[in-house]
Specification:
The protein is an alpha/beta fold. It is built from 11 helices and 10 strands.
Length: 298
């Protein structure tokens, strides 16, 4: 959290407020954040997530948005950092942007949390604007939360992040925002994004990913936000490509136990053929690996 707040103190653009939302920590996080804001001369406040809001990132983000006063909200997770000219660059882009713009995003520099080594960029622009942007987003989430700046009125109208989702809540929010107006894409990486094993969508059992992706599809279908073609694109992304990707990672770490757990979740959600395809694919790989070992042993 200290690095995140320090990066705000270093901003070349100064007309902003800082809202820190504590998710019910048992340590002295609130006191530390309050002292940091005061010592760096930042304008802002530290809030504790009220019991009326669900625990987790969605509840905290929604509490922050509800207490914000500016026209735009920039998100910054506690272990990430803004580039020194981040807010200046975004403000300049918005000054010349169309009034139809409701969101801004840019690439991030991925940094290994334990070593500080650079892991390359993420969140590069895949489409310019309008329908092409929405279609690209349906095919895969490239909007990193700490690289997103969204019109506060739009967030308020949407009722905030969906607290039922845990790890894909940001993706669903960006899809909904994209239905309300244009996204502005900047090419410059303006956030350092720390990659760590404990993050919400890293190194979990396959069942976790299967549950989140099937729940996302259920929320999307019930919402009425997407038409049939858009739902098809989203399903091919999250139940197709993304689910297969995380199934492969989970299989490498935990083997068949993890794979079968996630396949069960997919089946219960009605994605039986997808579950069968994933299991068949890994069974084939396992047999080929075994055959290769037998051949070399002989």
């Amino acid at each position: 959290m200290g690095d995140a707040l320090a990066s705000l103190a270093e901003q070349t653009y100064h007309d902003f407020e800082v809202i820190v939302v504590d998710d019910g920590s048992s340590d002295d996080s609130i006191a530390v954040a309050s002292l940091a804001i005061a010592s760096w001369g930042l304008r802002g406040t530290v809030l504790r997530r009220p019991e009326s809001r669900p625990k987790g990132v969605s509840g905290c983000r929604n509490e922050g948005v509800a207490n914000a006063h500016g026209d735009w909200v920039a998100f910054l997770d506690s272990d990430d950092r803004f580039a020194t000219r981040k807010l200046e660059r975004v403000a300049a882009a918005l000054c010349s942007a169309s009034t139809s713009v409701v969101g801004v995003h840019h690439p991030v520099r991925q940094v290994d949390d334990s070593t500080g080594a650079s892991l390359g960029l993420a969140g590069e622009r895949r489409a310019t604007a309008g329908e092409a942007f929405r279609t690209a987003l349906l095919r895969g989430n490239f909007v990193v939360t700490s690289a997103a700046v969204v019109r506060r009125a739009t967030l308020a109208a949407l009722g905030g992040f969906d607290a039922k989702l845990n790890g894909v809540e940001d993706y669903w929010q960006w899809l909904r925002v994209a239905r309300r107006g244009e996204w502005l894409s900047l090419d410059e990486p303006l956030t350092d994004y720390r990659v760590r094993p404990g993050s919400l969508m890293q190194h979990r059992e396959f069942a976790h990913y299967a549950q989140q992706f099937t729940m996302l599809m259920d929320v999307a279908k019930r919402s009425g936000e997407l038409d049939r073609d858009e739902l098809g694109l989203l399903e091919r992304n999250v139940i197709g490509e993304a689910t297969r990707h995380f199934a492969g990672e989970a299989f490498e770490r935990s083997g068949w136990t993890s794979l079968l757990g996630g396949a069960t979740v997919l089946c219960r959600a009605g994605f039986v053929s997808d579950a069968a395809s994933i299991l068949a694919s890994h069974a084939k790989r396992s047999l080929l690996t075994l055959a290769t070992r037998v051949y070399h042993a002989s």
